[in-house]
UniProtKB/TrEMBL annotation:
It comes from Leptonychotes weddellii (Weddell seal). Pathway: Amino-acid degradation; L-valine degradation. Pfam families: ECH_2. Belongs to the enoyl-CoA hydratase/isomerase family. The gene is HIBCH. This is 3-hydroxyisobutyryl-CoA hydrolase. Signal peptide: none annotated. It catalyses: 3-hydroxy-2-methylpropanoyl-CoA + H2O = 3-hydroxy-2-methylpropanoate + CoA + H(+). One of its GO terms (molecular function) is 3-hydroxyisobutyryl-CoA hydrolase activity. Residues 46-336 form the Enoyl-CoA hydratase/isomerase domain. Its EC number is 3.1.2.4. Keywords: Branched-chain amino acid catabolism, Hydrolase, Mitochondrion. Gene3D superfamilies: 2-enoyl-CoA Hydratase, Chain A, domain 1. Its main location: mitochondrion. It is found in: Mitochondrion.
Length: 337
């Protein structure tokens, strides 16, 4: 073999080696991305685990792109009878969308800011229209995007460590992910109050407000999941029976009244106004310590966000979830750009 042929062989070998290394890195990258959310078939169920505990399981576009097609597959799979979604790490179900990544992408004029909201809302709609029973274990922090991954599903299980909030008016946004749909459908004007003030609900109050459908002691959550997975070809009623049984056995804060119960009549009155100015006037005229406290909170929020949010909820109260998500996508783009 001549020297030129030998050099050609060496060059080809090195090219193959470089290609192999690149492919290895791509495979590793894909695995790393996929590890942010675990998608497993267990027993009778498809199980989604949000797996970014260091970031309180904040939702990013990569996670959405893994969850959405798998949710659709399980929905069509005759061997999958329910879908369970939960968060890793014990501190959070999902603290919301990865706003920092979205904001940085928006500043850099990257398309990801558009893609994130569109694909997130598509996932929210898929959860809301899912034909299989969908069980969200909302243990720990559940805010913003985390609410969108849970509240539109058929069953939502809170624990004493659940922490719910829609804090968007404080950061120049609005309570999206279908907030315009589910918030005005909470009892009285509770949803309007939660949306405009970002008020936090904890533990059993998440159930009392209607955000969760069931309440279970956190130490029993693992057993609940095992019992759900062990069901044989369960119907929606079978699943509900298991959840009801665990809910009935829960004793934590069982006799505690809803944290806002004593204020509900006033909340219904104050937040029934159709303008932000009138809501503020109602709070000022009331003058009670609770009213003045809410006035102080609202005064720290983005005025634009408050106006958008009130209109969003009023409009959303008579729209379908899909119509609300379409409206919210348009709003998101107006706020981002």
């Amino acid at each position: 073999m001549g020297l030129p042929q030998m050099w050609r062989l060496v060059w080809r070998f090195n090219s193959f080696r470089r290609t192999d290394i690149i492919l290895q890195h791509l495979r590793m990258s894909k695995h790393t991305e996929a590890a942010e959310v675990l998608l497993e078939r267990k027993g009778c169920a498809g199980v989604i685990t949000l797996n970014r505990p260091k970031f309180l399981n904040a939702l990013n576009v990569s996670m959405i792109r893994h969850i959405y097609p798998q949710l659709k597959n399980w929905e069509q799979d005759p061997e999958t009878f329910l879908i369970i979604i939960k968060g890793a790490g014990g501190k959070a179900f999902c603290a919301g969308g990865d706003i920092r990544a979205i904001s940085e992408a928006g500043k850099a004029n990257q398309k990801i800011a558009q893609d994130f909201f569109r694909e997130e809302y598509m996932l929210n709609n898929a959860i809301g229209s899912c034909q299989k029973p969908y069980v969200a274990l909302i243990h720990g922090i559940t805010m913003g995007g985390g609410v969108g991954l849970s509240v539109h599903g058929q069953f939502r299980v809170a624990t004493e460590k659940s922490l719910f909030a829609m804090p968007e008016t404080a950061i120049g946004l609005f309570p999206d992910v279908g907030g315009g749909y589910f918030l005005p459908r909470l009892r009285g004007k509770l949803g309007y109050f939660l949306a405009l003030t970002g008020f936090r609900l904890k533990g059993r109050d998440v159930y009392a407000a209607g955000i969760a459908t069931h309440f279970v002691d956190s130490e029993k959550l693992g057993m609940l999941e095992e019992d759900l997975l062990a069901l044989k070809s369960p119907s929606k009623e079978n699943i509900a029976d298991v959840l009801d049984a665990y809910h009935a056995k829960s004793k934590i804060d069982q006799d505690k009244s809803f944290i806002l119960e004593e204020h509900m009549d006033k909340i219904n009155s104050w937040f029934s106004a159709n303008t932000l100015e009138k809501i503020i006037e109602n709070l000022q005229q009331d003058g009670s310590s609770f009213a003045l406290e809410q006035l102080k909170v609202i005064s720290k929020m983005s005025p634009t966000s408050l106006k958008i949010t009130l209109r969003q909820l009023i409009e959303g109260s008579s729209k379908t979830l899909q119509e609300v998500l379409t409206m919210e996508y348009r709003l998101s783009q107006a706020c981002m750009f």
